[in-house]
Amino acid sequence: MGEAVRVRPVAALLAGAVLAGAGACGTGERVVGPASVGDSGAGPVASAPATARSGTAAQGEFDPCSLLGPADRSSAGLAEAGERATVGGSPACDYVQPGDFGLLVTLDHHTDLDLLRERSPEAEEVRVGAVTALRVADLAADDGTCAVLLPAGGAAGRSGARSVHVDVTLTDFQDTRRACTRALAVAELIEPELT
Fold it and tell me: What is the pTM of this model?
């Protein structure tokens, strides 16, 4: 459905080195494979206001694609619903806004925020809603990638997730600050669903 964007799930890189290839939006499930990419700390980003959402899974397996309802996707600049994927054995939702950016939201079942902080000392602590999160990006490389890593709680924590990762990759692989602004805005939208 348009130009594909390679999303670099930074937290998964820290946990076990994976790279997500964002595809066209849909309802199928994909498994993303290995890579060898590293990232480091970043500078300031802007935040977006949280909005009401719908469709969160309250019982059974928690679906990461339910974290962004239609209004949230619109606020995040996404025209289409995400596609279910698997990253390092954890459920994820892969979104593509053709010609602009890719977004990957992962419920990490393997690593909690403390372990991610330990593995990436250059990660910067940021406040996202009611929680302290980590932002991981390499401003010097200016590769158009950024991740915000949130502690799992609420339905996400009950699903077995230990952390939730919001990874953004810009189509032109430039302007890391803009990628971080978008990643933080999306994290602000989904954080209320995680507490």
Answer: 0.72
